[in-house]
Specification:
Length: 753
């Protein structure tokens, strides 16, 4: 099948490089609401010129509006969507359900792609988003080829998969580490990449969660997806050019070029892996070092007073950059080559296979023989990927106009659709009527600074009259000013009326029913039970059926494993459910009472309204939201809301195993590990090929909860073992709006995230 090659552009230079080297489409961000907020990104003039040029080449441009938005940002969202509409972008990449509702209602001309931040990891999740109006789904990076094939087989739904670039340890969209620990949310494009940090504890002293880069190489030809996506909106134009060129050649049948592969590694590269493309893979973590490594070119054979000697497997030159893996350093030791010696002679460059001695800088760490040497920057490569781009202002998005001009003895009329311009006068017969017609055509062909293009011109001058050029020019200016496309100003779709909030009630959620044995459940409106594939109605026989709501997890690679359990609960009369990912809505499509859990990110009323339209009976506020935004939402919410006041919140949910064994010899079951980093304590839980990471201290918003006029407060006793006496003690405090000891406040008291 023919694939679309989709390349990143953190700025216009990277975008033009991508187009030059064969990208079929480019994705980029605006100044706001981009998951790469620290990239340069595009303003309106730059975007307009870029999309016009891309469309001239028959290529496409997608804008990533792929963050979650707080309520007070919705007006700015309209400004961003107006820009996208005016600049004629081909699609939007979206995470926030509220953004999707605004686009669906007010900008139907803009196609919607579901961002990988929506954590679509199974067929059921993709089907749900298709039903919501998304024409394309960007798949989770964690999927195997078989899983990708299953989703790609859905009729009338485009799929997009990553093929190259950086990997996140957590499923995208489900990472809350940076947000809850530092106040810099990945879901807001501000991630501080805590996954790259060094941790100590039960798993050793290393970068436990620091991922290698993905590089599928020729395996991309096996992919049945619509679009093959290169990661890298924070990378340079040189990197984008080299990677796009590499995969363009593969898709064009020229194979994986080893020389070009080396170029990419010199520009920027962590060690490469194929993640889980071919099945479960343990070799995905670069635990010793972080950041750019480069192309391996040898190992140190000799250490002199101020130089190192090694046999290079690649040509190196003066002013190239080298890096050396030095145990004990978080990043490789790097320096610029100032002097190269071959056979005791100083040279400008040394060929592949040469034994070289390279001068070290004045300050360098302790080195030893056997350490790996990398070529991390090459002057030759920097000049190898030139690209052409249009001159400034050469391309704009223009609207075609069809004009009709009529000349009579006392009036000239210019008409374009509903727009009309006239000029009065006393017009006499022309000496040469053809020259008059030519002058009119020349005049109306000049569209000046307007975003217009003359498509056709009909002139009716049956009396062969003469018209002064000055009069015609003024007539043209008047008409074009009237028909000049006005800036689109969309509007937020109307919301349902805010519902009346009754006296708030309490909900308790658990994954272990024995932990609730000392609670007085009469004080709780609802008990939410997070089920497993092995759960059965018999577990709930001592609890009142009308109080039970059953919850599905946020990640489930094989939803069919829940089928038997779900059917048993339905047969027993349980019909209230909670979902934490889009797949749950497909599995429970015929249920009438579904609530949305926190990972579905209700940050604004537009998202809440869409949830209500989808049939949700209740939504939960996001764990990483601020008190200020939550209070604003409670005043406007069109459906009942839940405020979670206590939870051991997952910071990472990952398919990256931390166990020190291969999959074949894994004993299975649950394992827990303790870690430390920067004075904070963490717990890692490995279970059923999934890893979750928690702060040792739970989130607790009990003191703040009394200021939130919500319908329900919720306390969660999930993901860790709780004794029933401990649950009783915590619950008593929470219900008095008192915090327990040693808690994490996340972003609740921040002004913004």
């Amino acid at each position: 099948m023919k694939h679309e090659l989709l390349a990143p552009a953190g700025d216009a230079e990277a975008g033009y490089a991508a187009l030059y080297y064969g990208a079929d489409a480019v994705y980029l961000g605006l100044q706001k609401f981009s998951a790469r907020a620290t990239a340069t990104n595009f303003d309106e003039p730059t975007l307009d010129a870029f999309t016009a040029y891309a469309h001239h080449l028959k290529r496409k441009v997608y804008v990533a509006l792929n963050t979650v938005l707080q309520e007070n940002e919705l007006a700015e969202l309209i400004e961003a969507l107006d820009i996208c509409s005016r600049c004629k972008v081909d699609a939007l990449i979206i995470q926030d359900l509220g953004v999707a509702r605004v686009v669906r209602e007010s900008y139907p001309e803009l196609e919607m792609h579901a961002s990988t931040q929506m954590a679509v990891h199974n067929r059921e999740g993709a089907l749900c988003l298709k039903k919501l109006g998304f024409s394309r789904v960007v798949l989770a990076r964690e999927l195997t080829l078989d899983e990708i094939k299953d989703i790609a087989a859905i009729p009338d739904l485009e799929t997009e998969a990553f093929i190259h670039g950086a990997l996140c340890y957590s499923y995208s969209g489900l990472c809350q580490f940076s947000s809850l620990e530092t106040g810099r949310s990945a879901n807001r494009g501000k991630c501080l990449y805590p996954c790259r940090a060094c941790f100590t504890g039960d798993l050793g002293n290393k970068h436990i969660f620091s991922m290698k880069d993905m590089a599928l190489k020729e395996d991309v030809l096996k992919m049945p997806v619509t679009s093959l996506k290169i990661e890298g909106r924070k990378k340079s134009a040189l990197y984008v050019a080299a990677v796009t060129d590499y995969y363009r050649r593969i898709l064009d049948g020229k194979g994986a070029d080893a020389h070009r592969e080396e170029d990419i590694k010199q520009i920027f590269s962590r060690p490469w892996c194929k993640f889980h493309f071919n099945g479960k893979n343990k070799d995905i973590i670069d635990s010793s070092f972080v950041g750019h490594r480069g192309l391996p070119i040898g190992q140190i054979k000799k250490i002199g007073r101020n130089d190192v000697g090694f046999q290079t497997t690649h040509k190196i030159s003066r002013y190239d950059g080298l890096q050396i893996d030095v145990p004990g350093l978080e990043k490789p030791f790097g320096f610029s080559v100032q002097k190269i010696t071959v056979n005791k002679k100083s040279v400008i460059s040394a060929d592949k296979g040469s034994y070289v001695e390279v001068e070290l800088p004045k300050k360098y760490p302790q080195l030893k023989t056997g350490l790996n040497v990398y070529l991390s920057s090459s002057s030759a490569v920097k000049g190898a990927y030139d690209y052409a781009k249009p001159r400034p202002d050469a391309f704009r998005n223009l609207s075609n106009v069809d004009v009709r001009v009529e000349i009579t003895r006392n009036r000239i009329t210019a008409e374009c659709g509903k727009y009309l311009a006239t000029a009065e006068g006393n017009f006499q017969p022309a000496d040469d009527a053809k020259k008059t017609e030519e002058a009119v055509r020349l005049s109306f062909a000049k569209t000046g600074g307007t975003p217009l293009r003359l498509n056709s011109l009909v002139i009716n001058n049956k009396d062969n009259l003469f018209t002064p050029v000055s009069v015609v020019n003024q007539l043209r200016r008047e008409l074009y000013e009237k028909i000049k496309p006005q800036h689109k100003q969309g509007m937020l779709p109307p919301l349902p009326s805010a519902r009346k909030v009754n006296a708030p009630q309490w909900i308790v959620k658990t994954d272990d029913l024995t932990s609730l044995s000392e609670l007085d459940l009469a004080k709780f409106a609802e008990v939410i039970y997070l089920i497993s594939p092995q759960s059965s109605p018999e577990e709930l026989q001592n609890l009142p059926l009308q109080k039970i709501r059953l919850a599905l997890p946020s990640v489930c690679r094989k939803p069919e494993i829940y089928q038997k359990s779900i059917m048993a609960f339905r047969k027993a009369g349980y019909h209230k459910w909670e979902v934490a990912n889009w797949w749950g809505l497909s599995v429970l499509s015929d249920e009438s009472d579904i609530s949305f859990d926190t990972p579905l990110y209700m940050f604004n009323t537009q998202g809440m309204a869409y949830a209500a339209e989808m049939g949700a009976k209740r939504v939960s506020f996001a764990l990483e939201d601020t008190l200020e935004n939550i209070k604003e939402l409670t005043a406007k919410a069109p459906l009942p809301t839940t405020f979670v006041v206590y939870q051991n919140a997952p910071l990472f949910i990952s398919a990256g195993c931390v166990r020190d064994n291969d999959c074949k010899h894994c004993t299975g079951g649950e394992k827990r590990y303790s870690l430390q980093q920067n004075g904070r304590q963490y717990e890692v839980v490995s279970k059923n090929c999934q890893v979750m990471v928690f702060d040792k201290n739970p989130l607790c918003f009990a003191k703040e909860a009394s200021a939130v006029e919500t319908d329900f407060y919720r306390m969660d006793f999930i993901y860790r073992k709780y004794q029933s006496s401990e649950v009783k003690k915590i619950a008593d405090k929470l219900m008095c709006f008192e915090d327990v000891d040693n808690v994490n406040k996340g972003n609740i008291n921040n002004r913004k995230i």
